[in-house]
Amino acid sequence: MMEMRMRNASLAYRAVPIGLGIAATFCLPQAAHAASTSGLMPVSALSLAACVVVPTPMVFGTLSQLDGNPNDSSALVTVTCTPGTTFDVGMNDGLYASGGVRRMKALLTADYVEYRLYSDAARSVPWGNVIGTNTVSGTAGLLPSVMTVYGRVPGSAPLAPLGSYADTVTVTVTF
Q1: I want to staple 58 with a disulfide (CB 3.0 to 4.6 A). Which of 49, 75, 90, 170 is the partner?
Q2: How far separated are the first and last CA of the chain, in Å rounded?
Q3: For residues 36 and 162, what is the distance between their CA atoms, to the nearest angstrom?
Q4: How many structural domains are present in the chain?
Q5: How high is the pLDDT of residue 18?
């Protein structure tokens, strides 16, 4: 019987800590959720004007100057800007201009071929680099703006010696 009492006492001592642990859990302060409040978090962004310009090459091909007729060509300039952005597209005189006349230079000699760039198909409105005078302006929409550049080697230009000719024109978008 003594053995049984000791066993019961041992169980009782073991049960007390477990019981106290459970009781303590219920006695600990618990967070009460009796009310709530809300706040407003402002969210904003700023879209700045930005533009990208991508011109295609203008290739006049083989010049046939002996007949006195001009040699015409065209190229495209694609301008993509933030919608609503107003812009002007200008073109400088190229690398080899002289006296305000654009010229292509022969690759192997010091010879030149004159050419002109225009903003209209009739080739009557020169395309230059002075905003408000000879640039092309626009306002960006949701789609890119595609403009045609019309080029001409005048039939009255001096005959070009044999060879390949090239120039580089810088296209600038001001916004």
Answers
A1: 75
A2: 103
A3: 87
A4: 1
A5: 52
